[in-house]
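User: Run a structure prediction on this.
Assistant: Running it now.
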Amino acid sequence: MKLYTKKGDTGKTSIIGRRVDKDDLRVEAYGTMDELNSVIGKAMTELDKEIFKDILADLENIQHELFDGGGDLANVMKERVYKLTEAPIETMEARIDALADEAPPLKRFILPGGSPAAATLHIARTVARRAERQTVTLMKADDDVSPVVQKYLNRLSDYLFAAARVANSRINVADIEYIRSADVFK
């Protein structure tokens, strides 16, 4: 099997239901979700398999969910069933709460960083925010987009923030507080 088809050489690509320009809003949104999936994969290689067993399981599920959401964005067929549902969002909210309770209390804004894994999880968080912004832009241009994807990405960035803090905490690396931050989390 050849990996290249040459069909994209003219600046077009196929989504489910038609061909579009490679810079189409849908392609930008699901392409950023693919980028996010890759950054999460990188973060997973930086997490100790025993210390972070729970977070690694979360992240693997998230990778599958990102494929589901990306597929939902790429599908323009009139008759379709969305793969990404509200259930993973509810699961993620419970995990965010558990991770937030485990991490040290937060009073000020923190700088992305600390351990390599935490830094990569912060990168993933910012890519999730970009994917969310692009999905919002797509939703403004096309009212036939599942709102679950945007909600999922919003919650995912919160999860990644909480996971980054725990990635530091479990190996006794302190978060770096932004020195000019007031106490904003009370």
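The mean pLDDT is 95.
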